[in-house]
Specification:
Length: 132
């Protein structure tokens, strides 16, 4: 594949259009499919692992760890989605995926975060009412 050197002499891109649009390498890396979908996939696998451990044991703080993982998934996915909003639309046309696919990890993270927060609040209210 032919690579063209950009005018800033730092980056090589196969598409000459990217040289004129993208000024920073970070803009490209944040929206790479392996990064934009790989990190949320890893976080989902990690979430499922801790959920299975939580089902098998009686460790109480594992629910809080699940809340942290789901919150990080939601915030990371929003950050990637926000990056897609700030980049030039011409760049997104050459992407290997549709930008609407970035909403899926955000939705999953939001649902898991709300579920874990609701479960945590319910547990705290139950603990408070049982104490009196």
């Amino acid at each position: 594949m032919f690579l063209k050197k950009c005018t800033n002499n730092k980056f090589y891109f196969a598409n000459p259009l990217l040289c004129s649009i993208i000024k920073k390498k970070e803009d490209v890396l944040m929206l790479q499919p392996y990064f934009a979908f790989g990190v949320p996939l890893f976080l989902l696998v990690l979430y499922l692992l801790f959920a299975l451990i939580h089902r098998q044991t009686t460790i109480h703080y594992l629910r809080f760890i699940l809340l942290l993982i789901s919150t990080f998934l939601m915030i990371f996915s929003f950050q990637v989605l926000q990056e897609s909003w700030t980049i030039n639309p011409e760049t997104l046309k050459d992407a290997a995926y549709s930008p609407q696919w970035l909403w899926i990890p955000l939705g999953i993270g939001l649902i898991l975060t709300l579920y874990n927060a609701w479960h945590g609040l319910r547990t705290m209210i139950k603990y408070k009412t049982d104490k009196h």
